[in-house]
Amino acid sequence: MLVANAWSSGSSSCTECSNRKVRCQFTKETSRRMSYIKQVQDLEKQLQNSKQQFQHLQKGMMRPDCMADMDGGVP
């Protein structure tokens, strides 16, 4: 996710790193990002939350009272 003025000047961070409050390791000289640690951690957290929500919903659908709803109300 490259944005305008995303290059680090050496003493200051690029826009992306400043927004994420991480040390910038991306410069014009390297032409690549060296650290996506914060972004990866954010994605891992989102994935874990999604898995937990999915499991919660799955458990809710397995309740006997919900099974009747899935059959169109026929017990």
UniProtKB/TrEMBL annotation:
This is Uncharacterized protein. Keywords: Coiled coil, DNA-binding, Nucleus, Transcription, Transcription regulation. Residues 33-60 form a coiled coil. It comes from Penicillium salamii. The keyword Transcription regulation applies. GO terms for molecular function: DNA binding; DNA-binding transcription factor activity, RNA polymerase II-specific; zinc ion binding.
